[in-house]
Design a protein that fits this description.
Layout: H1 3-8, E1 26-31, E2 37-41, E3 44-49, E4 52-57, E5 61-67, E6 70-82, E7 85-90, E8 94-97, H2 104-115, E9 116-123, E10 128-135, E11 142-148, H3 154-169
Parallel strand pairs: 7-11
Antiparallel strand pairs: 1-2, 2-3, 3-4, 5-6, 6-7, 6-8, 9-10, 10-11
């Protein structure tokens, strides 16, 4: 890889069906076997979709794994508001076979880790939840995301999340 490509990232693949936002730069590209591309930008990971391509914001990447030429993405969706916090649920993992991953797995790890400001595990009876403060890409804001374990009382988690987000927004309370 040339040093200019390393410094300035990759080019948008010809025929890319998505539309990057103004100022959104391509940092890395990997071709997906069977068609499409994984494209890393500062705002998220572009993935192949039935209608072309779509971007998953870094704050909604729940898990990403790379093994045996397969990149596995688990995306989170916001299921409920709790004050200024949001409750999340993981979608089914999606797997992409990459013949030449280039820097994409490394860049994804950097961006996901970089979006996390802090995290805390709260054990409840039964279950528990992860409370994670994450930066929303392209903004100056952070959001409290809460991922409850299966079987955990969502009303209890929502009450704790609402109180925590209020205290973080108003520390004098």
């Amino acid at each position: 890889m040339g040093w200019l490509r390393y410094l300035f990232g990759d080019r948008l693949p010809e025929g890319f069906p998505g539309t990057l936002d103004r100022g959104e730069d391509v940092l890395g590209v990997a071709t997906v076997s069977g068609g499409g591309h994984l494209i890393v930008t500062q705002l998220g990971l572009w993935i192949p979709a039935p209608d072309g391509a779509r971007r998953v914001g870094w704050h909604l990447v729940a898990k990403a794994a790379w093994a045996d030429s397969v990149f596995t993405l688990t995306e989170a969706e916001e299921t409920r508001k709790a004050g200024e916090a949001v409750l999340l649920a993981d979608l089914a993992p999606v797997r992409f076979t990459l013949d030449e991953p280039a820097r994409v797995p490394h860049l994804v790890r950097q961006r996901v880790d970089g979006s996390i400001r802090s995290r805390y595990r709260k054990e409840l009876t039964p279950g528990g939840a992860w409370f994670v403060w994450r930066k929303v890409p392209g903004t100056d804001t952070t959001v409290l995301q809460v991922r409850p374990d299966p079987g955990t009382d969502l009303d209890v988690v929502a009450a704790i999340a609402s109180e925590a987000s209020t205290k973080m927004a108003n520390p004098e309370l």
